[in-house]
Amino acid sequence: MRGYVALALFLALTVGGGALVGAATAPGEWYQALQKPWFNPPGWVFGPAWGMLYVLIGIAGWRVWHRGELQAARVWWVQLGLNFIWPFLFFAAQMPGLALVEIVALFAAICGFVAYTWREDRVSALLFLPYGAWVAYATLLNAAIWWLN
To answer: Tell me, what CATH number does 112's domain have?
Structure first.
């Protein structure tokens, strides 16, 4: 039973934390005024996409914690911190160039997590693949916005 309480805590941290960060850094007039590339998705896409991804991130974090995979758990915490910092750099500080550097580090941490878990906990690695794909796309979007503005 303790394992499922921990799972609920991991999900509360990722989904709840992501929701709080999103609410604190909601795009405003500055973002609306930016030139965006043709592949910029409509705003309504981000909430459902991140909601699903935060569930997958939470489950993967719980799995590596539950299995005692310390190195993978460290990388998991690093990626979560980087994930939560990016919106503050991009939206709140209005620094897309610095946010671009940071999101590249986030993508590297995601890749590191997949590499650490691939042999011992393939499920956790697979749970991170949609997240990695989304962050790769977000990196391209961040780079395009930086370039255009």
So the answer is: 1.20.1260.100
For the beta carbon of residue 20, count every other beta carbon within 10 angstroms: 11
Q: For residue 32, what are the domain limits?
A: 2-148
Q: Which two tokens stand for residue 76?
A: 């998991």
pLDDT tens column, 54-113:
999 999 999 999 999 999 999 999 999 999 999 999 999 999 999 999 999 999 999 999
